[in-house]
Amino acid sequence: MDLGIAGKWALVCGASKGLGYGCAQALAREGVNLVVVARGAEALSAAAERLRGDAQPGVQVQAVAADITTVAGRDAVFAARRDYDIVVTNAGGPPPGDFRDWDREAWIRAVDANMLTPIELIKATVDGMAARGFGRIVNITSSAVKAPLEVLGLSNGARSGLTGFVAGVARNPKLVAANVTINNLLPGAFATDRLRGTLAGMAQRTGQSLEAVSDTRRKAIPAQRFGEPEEFGAICAFLCSRHAGYMTGQNVLADGGAYPGTY
Questions:
Q1: Using one digit for the tens of pLDDT, what is the confidence trace for 1-28?
Q2: Residues 108 and 202 in one domain
Q3: DSSP of 17-38, one letter per residue?
């Protein structure tokens, strides 16, 4: 299927590894030009080189080493390029733990990274998208928005706030009628550093081995495996395609069947 987005420009956040890299890779393979951003300059530079080697001929890949959750980081991204046709928001989730241990500053950091930063990126790009007649915004959130995990309370709260915001703005007729969509992509257990860190934390708290905790988590998934970033990226690329113009305000769950609900 031709996704119809070759030659577009995409901003992909957290793109040096994991799910962000998977999304950038899928878009590059579709001929989309990229501005990729992450905090670690060395890892990002290496990721950008891999993306160039994997992309369609002629695809441009610009790397911006910056913290997208800060004003300075966002300024750096928009200094590299002002207008984007596609934006994939993504920031590392806050650490797991016991809610009794989280102070106000911990909550502010979580909300700033996982709610307010995507909102700032949406605000900075949607009007330009509408004026040009095409725009796709995909927010990488978490399956915990639908099935919260107690140890991920900071993430549950911040990402649920973003979900509520998107539910309203994504249905603005001035945006949707102008072919601008905003959707959330909810990953379950994917083979990333984030999952490995969460499993390690669970192992430490329960006294079990990391292998035992991983095996238990894997067996709880109907697919009997963890997802791969590349397949997550393919879903993201479809949501960014010309074929997805009638989908907006949706929470697309990719979790191997782990969520047990009907809705």
A1: 899 999 999 999 999 999 999 999 999 9
A2: no
A3: SHHHHHHHHHHHHTT-EEEEEE
- 112 with 211, same domain? no
Enumerate residues 6+ apart whose C-beta is below 8 A from 17.
38, 43, 47, 192, 193
Backbone dihedral angles phi then psi of residue 195, each to the nearest 5 degrees: -65, -45
Whether residue 3 is contained in a domain is answered as no
Domain range enclosing 100: 9-189+228-254
Co-location of 214 and 161 in the same domain: no
Q: Is 260 within a domain? A: no
- Quote the pTM value: 0.94
First to last CA, the chain: 28
Q: How many residues does the chain have?
A: 263
Q: Which segments within the chain are labelled E, that is strand?
A: 9-13, 33-38, 61-65, 86-89, 135-140, 180-187, 251-254
Adjacent-strand bridge partners of 11: 35, 87
